[in-house]
Q: What sequence folds into this?
């Protein structure tokens, strides 16, 4: 079988799965879950097969990287159909962000900047939804914007999801009075700098095209001094680093951040220095925020996949090192 | 003059920006606002320029049947499809229920997420093949990675729940992130900051001329 034929078969299988999931979403099929016994059998099978690979490695038979790909694929996909509940430990930085939002009095204005695009949405979208939900529950006013072109559209998706909750819907929140989407503005960190003196100069109208001065929520918001708190959800440049360096350091804005797991380690320096009022890092940050907000949603559900993936990667690191030490010892013996 | 005028502009703008940071009052504050406005205008134009350049390169590649021209053809088709639908739907093209919104939700988002998700496979494969305890430093990194990976997921807490609080795997992962990792990051950031300051000063003072094609 040629490589091109294999590629076409793989594309066909992926397309078939995509079509099934799409139809399921459009026709409102319920979520499919494995029975608990089947979940345990799947877990046991994965665990035993990893043990078998370890034994094979000890015997000197190495596995191909395609086997690793298959395991990672199963480790990520299968837990989506399982319903185990995990005890989520809340990190101090996640607790700090939640507390900072909870301490704001009702009516406070919270600026949320969506500085990411769909590739990072699996990590950041659950954070966005939870943060907006907490803000609405606390009767805070939410102003969203984006330094990335797709940010405002991600914000709308998050708002749509939050409004699916009947408790939030019952509050009868009005666009323009309780929340507003200012849209995207090009210019990276210069947008932040200009917002320090005038929001209106950067956002002459909102996402819908309504002039800035005609929006009741932001009519009196001139610059950062009229914003009580802000949250930056970022996947790179421009993102949290630029917000800290300009809005926090220069204009004294209080800010918390949600970052992808890859980017989060950089932010700990800002967190330790007190420049960030809390930090959510990756999927675990999203799940922890859901736990502290007592609302289990996508972050918590996806965390099971993350757990499986981490365990599988650790298992393969151990297997790889076993192979390394075994081959090293063998070559040493040969040398002797 | 071809070199002197750009160097003069660079020096004036550079010094102006440094001053406005420390003295945000008139005329420096106003000057900063002008620069920021102009940067946004140039940034918006650059987005259009970038998109048109991508289209031009893709058309050329497809027309000349260069290697992998099929991907370029897909770029052209996707570009035109999104643009035509966006223009046809008018100002509210991004509103829920529009064709543009459908394409964004059911084509763009899944495709982008898929591309990013491939990273997991490469990370796992690379970890298996290259993450080896070859020497002391690599072993230290391996141990730290183990604690962070297992401590950052709930199973880590479950496995070490018998340990006293503060010594559980999640606590160790938090310690690694907030103490040695943050110290390393801070050192890197300070190093980068100093590098930026020295390079900026060299450019402002005209000692560094590579950006205007004038050698060192």
A:
């Amino acid at each position: 079988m040629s490589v091109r034929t294999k590629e076409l078969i793989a594309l066909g299988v992926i397309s078939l799965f995509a079509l099934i999931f799409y139809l399921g979403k459009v026709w409102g099929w319920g979520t499919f879950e494995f029975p608990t016994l089947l979940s345990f059998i799947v877990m046991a099978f994965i665990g035993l097969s990893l043990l078998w690979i370890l034994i094979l490695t000890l015997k000197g038979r190495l596995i191909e990287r395609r086997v690793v790909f298959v395991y990672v694929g199963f480790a990520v996909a299968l837990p989506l159909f399982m319903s185990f509940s995990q005890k989520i430990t809340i990190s101090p930085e996640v607790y700090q962000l939640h507390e900072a939002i909870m301490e704001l009095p009702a009516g406070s204005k919270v600026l949320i900047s969506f500085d990411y695009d769909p590739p990072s949405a699996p990590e950041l979208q659950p954070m966005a939804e939870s943060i907006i939900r907490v803000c609405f529950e606390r009767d805070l006013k939410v102003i969203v914007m984006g330094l990335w072109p797709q940010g405002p559209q991600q914000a709308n998706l998050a708002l749509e999801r939050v409004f699916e909750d009947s408790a939030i819907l019952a509050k009868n929140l009005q666009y323009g009075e309780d929340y507003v989407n200012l849209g995207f503005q090009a210019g990276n960190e210069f947008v932040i700098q200009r917002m320090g003196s005038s929001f209106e100069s950067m956002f002459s109208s909102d996402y819908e095209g309504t002039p800035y001065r005609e929006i009741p929520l932001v009519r009196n918001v001139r610059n950062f001094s009229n914003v009580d708190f802000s949250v930056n959800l970022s996947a790179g440049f421009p993102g949290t680093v630029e917000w800290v360096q300009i809005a926090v350091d220069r204009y004294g804005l209080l800010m918390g951040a949600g970052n992808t797991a890859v980017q989060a380690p950089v932010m700990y320096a800002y967190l330790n220095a007190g420049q960030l009022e809390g930090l959510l890092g990756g999927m675990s940050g999203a799940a922890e925020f859901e736990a502290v907000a007592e609302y289990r949603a996508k972050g918590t559900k996806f965390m099971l996949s993350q757990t499986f993936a981490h365990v599988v990667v650790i298992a393969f690191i151990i297997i790889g090192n076993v192979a390394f030490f075994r081959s090293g010892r063998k070559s040493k013996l040969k040398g002797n | 003059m071809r070199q002197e005028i750009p160097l003069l502009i660079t020096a004036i703008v550079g010094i102006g920006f440094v001053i406005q940071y420390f003295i945000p009052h008139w005329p420096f504050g106003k000057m900063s606002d002008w620069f920021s406005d102009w940067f946004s205008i140039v940034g918006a134009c650059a987005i259009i320029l970038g998109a048109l350049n991508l289209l031009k390169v893709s058309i050329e590649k497809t027309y000349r049947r260069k290697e992998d021209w099929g991907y370029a053809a897909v770029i052209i088709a996707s570009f035109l499809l999104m643009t035509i639908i966006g223009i046809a739907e008018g100002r509210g093209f991004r509103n829920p229920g529009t064709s543009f919104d459908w394409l964004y939700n059911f084509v763009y988002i899944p495709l982008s997420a898929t591309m990013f998700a491939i990273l997991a496979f490469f990370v796992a494969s690379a970890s298996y093949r290259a993450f080896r305890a070859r020497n002391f430093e690599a072993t230290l990194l391996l141990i730290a990675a183990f604690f962070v990976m297992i401590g950052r997921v709930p199973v880590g807490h479950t496995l070490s729940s018998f340990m006293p609080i503060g010594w559980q795997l999640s606590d160790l992962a938090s310690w690694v992130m907030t103490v040695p990792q943050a110290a390393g990051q801070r050192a890197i950031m300070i190093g980068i900051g100093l590098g930026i300051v020295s390079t900026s000063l060299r450019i402002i003072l005209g000692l560094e001329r590579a950006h205007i094609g004038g050698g060192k």
